[in-house]
Design a protein that fits this description.
Nucleotide-diphossugar_trans; chitin synthase; 7-stranded mixed β-sheet; 1236 residues; 12% strand; disordered N terminus; alpha+beta; transmembrane helix; chitin synthase activity
């Protein structure tokens, strides 16, 4: 096994550390897995601190070990339970005792050392020992004892609760087998320390060995900490005790806890809505008090009288009888005609701040007392409010000071009047006026009124005249009058010549405006920025994606073609015709070929020529160098390198394989080196999953399954450097999950996958039927429908046996059984013409359940996530060469038989729902992105609606789907952080190449991903919403969280179509699940700190905004309606808010114009806008109230209804589940057949 040489002085080395794209990778080696065999069986490997590197001596033997300096462990620190020492590692004693019991020779068992493994009675060069693995994996070793190998089947390889749970959860092993109504606490299996003590006793020679070996696992109840959240929802719902909830149907503790969680979450939503509502509406009213009514200086009506810059409404007043005025006279009207006039000189403010500043002369006729208090300063005259009244010192005909209201009675009556409004001037009024107006402390002063002083009667400061004559019109005297004396003069002038106030705002109102405009700028910035980025994606990025770059015109033509194709779910896309040799063969043709001893396409003597004729021309400018083609690395390119190929060795290996098949196949003849890289050098014998043919190899073990089991009709692989789309192909698994779908839905999906223009040599259809379910309206069960679409079975369906595996469930349901059927896809000639039918390998996994549950309503059903985990767990165990269940071995074996490839050769998984149809070139475009950019961990295409016009329910969803892809996903894709890869049409990378040196980073097969995604402990409302409702979105979140530096993108060229809910009941159920899962997944994502960007300019911040926006959607509708009605009813329309609303609602229309190719989307947008109350109020409110509902509701129905829900009680019986490596399973099968 070659792991390469580590040089710590090279900054470009690839260190095997945490399974992370930045510092973790797995080396490609010759072990049948396509990666360096880590032997990381997780229930046994607690530590991998030792990493050994070997050096080949040219004969395949290791001549030395050395420990490279490495700081990190392959297992994340929080998952590492002990250090690599024999005293602390829980598996140490177990290994020692097992080897001792097998060999019966205590001198021959392996000693554990911190640094270097020691082999006993064995030549290290002949042992399969993974130098990246932990020494504790004894069942991966072929230990020679007394001339024969230890029989691995004699070891206890059945999975037990502890072992398997350590695989699922390394920190703690939780057992939920016993969940009574009254006891819902978590149980944790904990026996490592006790096992250590027990085996210490055994090794020390105690007589109680048998009793200790048979000792059962101990369990104890874990003490549950009372968290702050639990305290909060307990206090919040104190008014609803358990008996009361039980009366309303919430009888179990789990449901009651979920209900309390729901109430607490709803309260949080109310808090957020209250805070945002206060910021929008309450903040301005709180800090900016409502100002008094104000009149502009030139807009005062005749119903008012102006006094000292204030307007008084005297429309209903009457003046008492005095000289010259009859009793009951209204001064606003004739004969006085004071309406709209300035009566400040009739009610002069004297003897205040002007005391001792303005004094009477000795000969003054103005009444003055001994303290110098004067009766008036100015003539008691009415003036025009515009300052046009000329100075007039003529005295009244009645008496001096007439109309100055100097009597105490008159003054009291004046003081009792309340002003109606303030008179205000704008700065423009002050600057452009013909009057000499200035401002002092916000008050407007008319300096021309100083001319009304009668200099023959009184004396005033010289500064009065200076200010009047200095041409200060339009200035603010507040900065000029600074001394105490000058300030007193300013106050004096304010009392006697004030004509109004300057148009200004208080500090609170200014702060309120700042908040309003900053919010406006911030929201508009985000909205407009997303819009601009989405347009940039459409016009500059989308056309460069996929298999080939196109111009915008070609891109529009392709989009229109997809639009036309998406009008009907059953319409066929532009499927290409297939050459005769590549078509799906009937059984009779296959039998005839075998009978006549003719070669199938896979075994054709001149296969490379056939490939050229059917696929296209080779590219002579793209040689395979350093394990890559033009910098693009695949599993295939790393297996072969043109520069290192020895043509004679290739022919010898091919001839050797032909002899091993014991048939009449002739030896393969290669015309040149390019042809030597065809199927034979890739698939056959030891060259499969090995270094390039001709490269000397330091491991001689066989790392493939038995070649004699390969199906005769498998599809031949093209040469490695065959690139009709200018990128090397990678092998893809097309994964389809079924539940209760009918024949039309499944046929539509499988037809579309099988007829994609991606080579059938590089795609495998894998269908998982989630239980023996018969959908509503179906005549037969979904598994029977699926099996009817297969032919040329490896094993006849009636002979296929069910195999056990550990399901994602609780209690006894953790044990499930499934059957694996392998063959080729069987087309329906009515849906796909014969000339377009490809020969595509297909595997169907039917979860049939244990014998005990066959009488239940849904035997074998464990959910979609369990179906995905079957594949993901299988890929992980293949990638790391771990022990696997019987079901997983059957999957591996069947893949080998119908493809001739080990499963580890597959690099990506296309996940498609069973009611989705894929556009023919979509898979090619999606795979091309993965090949060209190894930093992409997953991507999705666009989902089109096929039943747009069926009902108004489908019509309102069209634009919602459009905007979610072309605005949201397009924006996120530019930054490589698409937060939701829809489960109906997405592709994930299984492992990613790390450079050109043979290192691979596990992605979908990463233990962190598989472990967290397979979590069966759903003891909180948050986890239930993540794992039970939004598993597809949760998988996307896990990928982003585990690999934040990798990309998840949207590929516009790839498209699929599906049928959306056409009734409101089904839509309500679907969106309830989607909204609730979105909230909880966004909460997970907002905690990821490593997403691109910083602070407000980061994806983390954008995700946080989306989370808050989702929670307060009902408030958005309420705010919109309030603004609209307020603008209609109020005299002062909220212009800023209306502009913001118009931009938010209008930009999607602009996006349609700029990105959509059909104007009909404008109509769909209008329909969507009319349905905004449904999207922003009805659906969110319903979803929030259903926070504690974890069912799928009306989305999927089965014949006979849902059936009774079975409790997850009972003991998990793992005795029938065997966990072995695939080599052990194969040896066991050979022994059963008598071949060993």
């Amino acid at each position: 096994m070659s792991l390469g040489h580590y040089d710590n002085d090279d900054d470009d080395n690839y260190y095997l550390s945490n399974f992370n794209e930045e510092d973790g990778a797995v080396r490609n080696g010759n072990n049948g897995t396509g990666v360096s065999r880590l032997n990381s069986t997780r229930n046994r490997n607690r530590n991998r601190n030792s990493l050994l590197s070997n050096h080949s001596n040219g004969n395949g033997r290791m001549n030395s070990f050395r420990l490279p300096a490495r700081n990190n462990s392959l297992i994340r620190p929080e998952r590492r339970r002990s250090h690599n020492s024999k005293e602390n590692n829980p598996n140490y004693h177990s290994l020692q005792k097992k080897l001792q019991l097998q060999s019966h020779n205590r001198n021959n068992y392996i000693e554990i050392n911190n640094d270097i493994p020691v082999y006993t009675n064995t030549d290290p060069a002949n042992n399969r020992f993974s130098i990246t693995s932990n020494i504790y994996e004894m069942d991966e070793l072929n230990i020679q004892n007394d001339g024969h190998a230890i029989d691995d089947d004699d070891l206890n390889n059945t999975v037990d609760d502890d072992n398997y749970n350590n695989t699922r959860n390394r920190n703690s092993v939780r057992n939920f087998d016993d969940k009574s109504e009254n006891t819902k606490n978590d149980y944790i299996q904990f026996h490592d320390q006790e096992v250590d003590d027990d085996f210490d006793t055994i090794l020390n020679g105690n007589d109680d060995t048998d009793a200790l070996l048979n000792k059962e696992t101990y369990t104890f109840k874990r003490k549950k900490n009372f968290s702050l959240w639990e305290l909060y929802y307990t206090v919040l719902t104190f008014w609803a005790p358990a008996p009361l909830l039980a009366l309303f149907g919430l009888k179990s503790l789990d449901r009651q806890t979920a209900w309390r969680d729901k109430i607490a979450l709803i309260s949080i939503i109310f808090y957020l809505a209250a805070i945002i509502g206060f910021i929008i509406y309450g903040c301005s009213k709180t800090i900016c008090k409502t100002q008094a009514l104000r009149f502009k200086n030139d807009e005062v009506s005749l119903n008012y009288l102006i006094i000292n810059g204030k307007a008084y409404n005297l429309e209903r007043s009457s003046h008492p009888g005095v000289a010259g005025i009859d009793a009951g006279t209204n001064v606003l009207y004739p004969p006085i005609n004071a309406g709209g006039m300035d009566a400040t000189f009739l009610f002069q403010n004297v003897n205040g701040n002007c005391h001792n500043l303005i004094t009477a002369l000795d000969n003054s006729t103005i009444p003055t007392d001994d303290d110098g208090n004067m009766a008036w300063y100015f003539p008691c005259k009415l003036r025009n409010p515009d300052g046009s009244t000329q100075v007039n010192f003529t005295e009244s005909e009645y008496y001096s000071g007439w109309a100055c209201h100097t009597s105490e009675t008159a003054r009291e009556s004046f003081y009792e009047l309340d002003s109606t409004a303030d008179i205000y001037f704008t700065w423009d009024d002050i600057r452009n006026s013909t009057r000499n107006l200035v401002v002092y402390n916000g008050h407007v002063l008319d300096l021309d009124l100083i001319n009304w002083f009668d200099r023959d009667q009184l004396e005033y400061p010289v500064l009065f005249d200076d200010l009047k004559n200095w041409n200060l019109q339009g200035y603010d005297l507040s900065v000029l009058l600074t001394t105490s004396h000058e300030k007193k003069i300013g106050r004096c002038l304010t009392e006697i010549i004030k004509v109004g106030e300057i148009d200004s705002k208080t500090i609170g109102c200014i702060a309120s405006d700042i908040i309003l405009y900053l919010s406006l700028i911030f929201i508009l910035s985000v909205v407009i920025f997303k819009f601009i980025v989405a347009c940039y994606f459409r016009w500059f990025i989308a056309k460069t994606q996929g298999a080939f770059e196109t111009d915008n015109r070609t891109m529009d033509e392709h989009t229109n073609q997809i639009e036309d194709w998406s009008e009907n779910i059953y319409s066929q896309g532009p499927v290409k015709s297939v050459a005769t040799t590549m078509r799906s063969r009937s059984k009779s043709i296959s039998d005839q070929l075998n009978k006549n001893n003719k070669k199938t396409f896979f075994y054709s003597d001149d296969g490379s020529q056939d490939i050229e004729n059917n696929y296209g021309e080779f590219n002579d400018n793209d040689p395979i160098k350093y394990g890559s083609i033009n910098g693009m690395v695949t599993m295939s390119t790393q297996q072969l390198s043109l520069g290192d190929v020895d043509e004679e060795i290739i022919e010898l290996q091919s001839a050797t394989f032909c002899n091993s098949k014991k048939n009449q196949l002739s030896q393969f003849k290669y015309r040149n080196k390019k042809e030597s890289l065809s199927t034979q050098s890739l698939l056959l014998s030891e060259t499969t999953m090995s270094p390039a043919p001709g490269i000397k190899n330091n491991v001689s073990n066989v790392d493939t399954l038995d070649p004699s089991n390969i199906h005769p009709d498998i599809v031949q692989q093209p040469p490695i450097d065959f690139m009709p789309y200018n990128f090397p192909f990678i092998h893809a698994i097309c994964f389809v999950t079924c539940y209760s779908e009918g024949e039309d839905s499944i046929r539509t999906t499988l037809d579309s996958i099988a007829t994609t223009d991606y080579p059938n040599s590089h795609k495998l259809i894998m269908v998982v039927c989630d239980g023996l379910i018969k959908g509503s309206g179906n005549d037969v069960s979904t598994p029977d429908i699926t099996l009817g679409m297969m032919k040329d079975f490896v094993v006849e369906p009636k002979n296929v046996e069910a195999h056990s595996y550990v399901a994602v469930a609780a209690g006894k349901k953790r044990h499930n059984m499934a059957k694996v059927y392998a063959g080729f896809y069987n087309y329906d000639d009515d849906t796909v013409p014969i000339e377009k039918q490809q020969q595509v390998p297909m595997i169907t996994i039917v979860k049939c359940g244990t014998p005990e549950e066959q009488v239940s309503a849904k035997p074998g059903n464990r959910g979609k996530r369990d179906s995905q985990i079957i594949l993901m767990s299988f890929l992980q165990k293949i990638t790391f060469d771990e022990r696997m269940s019987q079901l997983e071995y059957q999957i591996l074996s069947n893949i080998w038989q119908i493809t001739g490839l080990m499963a580890s050769f597959y690099e990506c998984v296309l996940m498609v729902d069973a009611d989705t149809k894929v556009f023919p070139d979509s898979l090619t475009h999606m795979v091309a992105e993965l090949v060209r950019d190894p930093n992409i961990s997953g991507l999705c295409g666009e989902t089109k609606i096929a039943n747009k016009s069926d009902t108004w329910i489908t019509a309102i969803q069209v634009f919602e789907y459009f905007i979610s892809h072309h605005l949201s996903k397009a924006f996120e894709s530019v930054f490589g952080s698409v937060t939701c890869l829809p489960g109906c049409f997405s592709i994930y990378r299984i492992k990613s190449p790390k450079g050109h040196d043979g290192y691979w980073v596990p992605i979908l097969a990463n233990p962190d991903i598989v472990e967290r995604y397979s979590d069966n402990v759903t003891d909180t409302l948050h986890k239930k919403n993540l794992l039970l409702l939004g598993e597809d979105r949760y998988l996307s979140s896990l990928m982003l969280g585990t690999f934040p530096k990798k990309k998840q993108i949207f590929v516009r060229k790839a498209a699929c179509k599906t049928v959306v809910p056409d009734t409101f009941k089904v839509l309500l159920s679907q969106r309830r699940r989607w909204i609730n899962s979105t909230i909880h997944n966004l909460f997970e994502l907002v905690l990821i700190k490593d997403l691109c960007g910083v602070f407000c300019f980061s994806m983390q911040f954008v995700i946080g905004m989306e989370l808050i926006g989702t929670l307060v959607l009902p408030l958005a509708l309420a705010s919109t309606l309030y603004v609209i009605f307020y603008a209609i009813a109020s005299q002062t329309a909220p212009i800023v808010t209306l502009v913001l609303l118009a931009i938010i609602l209008g930009l999607p229309g602009v996006l349609v114009v700029l990105t959509a190719t059909k104007a009909i989307y404008l109509m769909w947008m209008l329909i969507y806008l009319f349905a905004l109350p449904v999207w922003t109020f009805v659906l969110p409110i319903y979803a929030f109230w259903k926070f504690d509902d974890f069912s799928w509701g009306e989305t999927r129905t089965i014949s006979g209804g849902e059936g009774a829900e079975e409790a997850d009680e009972g003991q998990f019986d793992s005795s029938n589940i065997k966990m072995r490596t695939w080599r052990e399973f194969e040896r066991s099968e050979k022994r059963e057949r008598g071949e060993l």
